[in-house]
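Interim report to the steering committee. The following record documents the input for Methyl-accepting chemotaxis protein (710 residues).
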Amino acid sequence: MKKGKSKLSWFMKIKIRDNKEKPDKVKVKAKAIVKAKGRGFFNHIKNKLILSFMILVCLIVILGIVSYNLAAANSIKNYEQSTSQTINMVGDYINLGMDSIKDLSIQYLADDDLGKYFKGAYSEDSLRYNDAYKSISKEITSRKLSDKFIQSIHIISPKAEVITTGNTSLSGDELFQGLLETKEGAILNEDHNKELWISEGSYLDEVLELKKSDYVLRYMRSFVNFKGFIIVDLKSKAILDIYSKLNYSDNCYFGFISEDGSELMYPDDKNIQMRAAMNKDINLDNNGYYYTYYKGQNYLFCYSKVGTTGAMVTALIPKSEMVKQISEIRIITIAVVLLASVIALLITFFMSRGIGDTISLLIKKLNLAADGDLTVNLETKRKDEFADLINSVSQMLNNNRKLIKNVSEISTKVEKSAGIVEDISMQFISETKNISSSITEIEIGMQQQADDSTECLTQMDELSMKIDTVYGNTTEVGQIAAKTQLNLDRNITIMNELKSKTKDTNEITEQIINDIQELEHTSIAIRTVIDVLDSIADQTNLLSLNASIEAARAGEAGRGFSVVAEEIRKLAEQSSKASNEIRNMIDDTQARVKTVVTSSNIAKETISQQEIAVLNTLDVFDSMNQDVNLFIDKIKDIMKYIQIIQSNKKTVLSAVQNISAIIEETVASSEEVNNVVEVQLDSANNLNDAFNELDSYATELNQSIGAFKF
């Protein structure tokens, strides 16, 4: 009998002690979950956003640098070609002036009146001699004034007076004999068909009172049928005037170099010498350009040879001057890059600030809830996924508030029930004395029931252990489901970001297609302009042909005009050739543009399909999230029912134990009624103590629930 009583007391104390220890374990586990963990730099959303936008800023900077370098290279290339073309045109223009000087000498050679005068045909007739002298002097003076390339004209013969635009006191014979003693005079006297371009003739400068600085070259040739020389000086000012009209800065230098090395510089700078700046290792063609290092600075050296005279026009352009031309591009590029960077940083700041503030508010409210304050209210003005998250958390807090409230009500009911059971146990003690008289009659049946009660008690112990196992497994499943829900929320956030990036990529692709189509329209417009240029070139070529025909009809008088017509024809052919090359380049560009448009459209369709796939994936995640939420709700219901089963389990175990004790005591009452009654009274007292402990546990449960505000 004492063995049954001790077993009952031991079993109930163990169960009560286990139930007291469980709340502490739950509290520790909850604190472990809520406890904030240290995060690395890349585990913060704000830092990830900033890093993402900084990558975009770096790409924008790289794009600006590449664009600036390409624009600078193209600008320098255009500057080089433009300067080279300008120098070629200057050379052609000066060559045209020198050809006009040659044509003038040919005209004098063919002039019969002039030939008669210098052969001495009028020496016997002073009147005709004077008339011829005046006529020729007037003609060369008029030619000097009308031709801007001519500085002075001198016609010398030993049989007539010198006719010159200069001044001399020597006779024709004296001047002719003195000129024969010079190098150039001896050359012309040996070969009457020879033509010379020299940069200096000191003898003529002295006797004719000429200044070397007034002319850059001197053209000399002899008469074919009689002794005499025709001398024409090329005006220095004419060349300087051409250079002065070129639109270049003062740091740019232009030169005219004769075959013998004499230089004419513009602007005049004694420290700059064109021949010294030339690269002696480069073989010069008719025209071209290259870079040279001169006096500690890089220069673009352009050159163009002037016909067959051996002279050359040159230009020396500092590379720093070309870089100034692209300064505006650099400023615009830097401004655009800075503006894009500032906008990206502002967007990053406001986005990260908005997300950070929302998450901070959510963490603050959840910490209050973790401390037991379930009255917290979560509200937000956002209309994105954070609003859904906050609404879900708010709904979770409301459900927890209702759950704690229900547990509190059940605990109060348990406490009241314990008081009622205590009264019943007191009544049971008084009634036990009356039961002792009937124990003998049911002794045989009670023995069998005692055995059955012992077996039932064993099975109830096993059932209690299985219920505890199910409760623990259900708790773990709930935690796994909660983690699954968090992972789904993160996946939904990532998919939304991917959706936004896909949409931005699609918009950029559409903009690229529009820009390429605009480029195609521009190419078509340029082709139209090229067609107009072809028409102009054809008309120019026809005009040149007509001019050549008219010049041929005019004979010697139209020879100079024939040269001009030939140059116009060449210019028309070059224009037509350039137009064809440009048309071919435009055709190639249009073909490439069409290929790029096709590729861009394919890329656009691919991105659209990706966007649809992202949306479908997002729908799947939303569906999974709803299913997980439903699963968590079901787990909570199961846990609530298991808790009720655990409460009822205690009552059933207690009842079975009491029945077993009563049966054992009833069986023993046949031997010793007084002992049975005494044991029953002790069992009743133990039962009363057990319900007192149950009442104490219910009170402790109410105090724990009181820590929550709801």
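Residues 443-554 form the longest helix (112 residues). The committee is asked to note this result when reviewing the revised timeline.
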